[in-house]
From TrEMBL:
Lineage, top ranks: Eukaryota, Metazoa, Cnidaria, Anthozoa, Hexacorallia
One GO BP annotation of this record: beta-alanine biosynthetic process via 3-ureidopropionate
Origin: domain of life: Eukaryota
Name this protein carries in UniProt: Beta-ureidopropionase
Organism: Desmophyllum pertusum
InterPro entries in the cross-refs: Aliph_Amidase/BUP (IPR050345), C-N_Hydrolase (IPR003010), C-N_Hydrolase_sf (IPR036526)
Keywords (A to Z) from UniProt: Hydrolase
């Protein structure tokens, strides 16, 4: 049986001599990043939990008059715990327990903002084109069980959490959305962003998606969380390049997250059973660690942005 593919970096490090590896990384990743010294307690937790833990930093020039603002970001690429045929409640409970363990480890590493992969509370069942039982994973983005868990974790660890779920909007005819919820370090829900627009590639098709609405990735902010898609074209060829280039004109850090592992479904389908991983953070200078648009919204944003008195919209936790 072939070994499980975990990341591009691990594959390169395994098969390339040191000198060639250094040059390949320079071409692919730009300026090299430094490894972080992680706490021994965190490394032990990771070993006990059977997950990989790695940390890197982007070095910048120190200023004379301003102290550096250091933000430590945690990007979690996880895999399902139970088989896709297990009861829905059991699958969700197992993933909740797993993410609590990972979040505790991240807290020991001093993480300020932790980001979970797309729809981490369930298998990536969009490729099956089936409605049932997968929509049973959908929950409220305001007070669902996953949000309540994340609120507890945020308060416990003084950490901002970006949590992607399958959302059920009970106020509007139980519509289903692919939603990322932002929770402050005080446990307050700051807001959410919905993503439903899927390019027609392979098995992924808007005609078999829950609701036609928002887009795959956002721009015009200082930082962005982009859960990567599993389409071969986007991830294997375009994804890594697009997500490294994306921060350059926007001047923000991009956190690209993708799940790992293999998901097997009871009914036959044609692709996306293997999850490629390779999550990373990309910097505004084009370096990195080992599309569609909403034109009306952007037109309004650009019109406001060129005004002399323009101020960015910044949402604060009022708690």
């Amino acid at each position: 049986m072939a070994a499980e593919f975990t990341s591009l970096e691990s594959c390169l490090e395994k098969h390339l001599p040191p000198k060639e590896l250094e040059e390949v990384k320079r071409i692919l990743y730009g300026k090299p990043v430094s490894k972080l010294q992680l706490p021994e307690a965190a490394l032990k937790l990771a070993q006990a939990g059977n997950f990989e833990l790695a940390g890197y930093k982007f070095d910048v020039q120190e200023e004379q008059l301003r102290k550096p603002r250091i933000i430590r970001i945690g990007a979690v690429q996880n895999k399902i715990v139970l088989p896709t045929s297990a009861p829905i409640a059991s699958q969700l409970s197992a993933l909740h327990a797993r993410i609590k363990e990972i979040t505790e480890t991240a807290a020991l590493c001093g993480v300020n903002v932790i980001c979970f992969q797309e729809c981490w509370t369930m298998p990536f069942a969009f490729c099956t084109r089936e409605k049932h039982p997968w929509t049973e994973f959908a929950e409220s983005a305001e007070d669902g069980p996953t949000i309540k868990l994340c609120q507890e974790l945020a308060k416990q660890h003084n950490m901002v959490i970006a949590s992607s779920i399958l959302e059920r909007d009970s106020v509007h005819q139980d519509k289903i959305y692919n939603t990322t919820v932002i929770i402050s370090n005080n446990g307050s829900v700051l807001g959410k962003t919905r993503k439903n627009h899927i390019p027609r590639i392979g098995d992924f098709n808007e005609t078999s998606s829950p609701e036609l609405a928002d887009v795959c990735s956002e721009w015009l902010q200082r930082s962005a969380l982009i859960p990567q898609q599993l389409w071969e074209l986007l991830v294997n060829q375009c994804g890594p390049l697009r997500l490294v280039v994306h921060p350059l004109p926007q001047h923000y850090f991009t956190v690209a997250i993708n799940r790992i592992g293999t998901e097997v479904f009871e009914n036959e389908f044609t692709s996306a059973d293997g999850k490629p991983g390779s999550s990373y953070v990309a910097a505004p200078d084009g370096s990195r660690t080992p599309m569609t648009s909403r034109l009306d919204m952007y037109a309004k944003s650009f019109t406001e942005a060129v005004k002399p008195d323009y101020k960015q919209q910044i949402i604060h936790d009022e708690a």
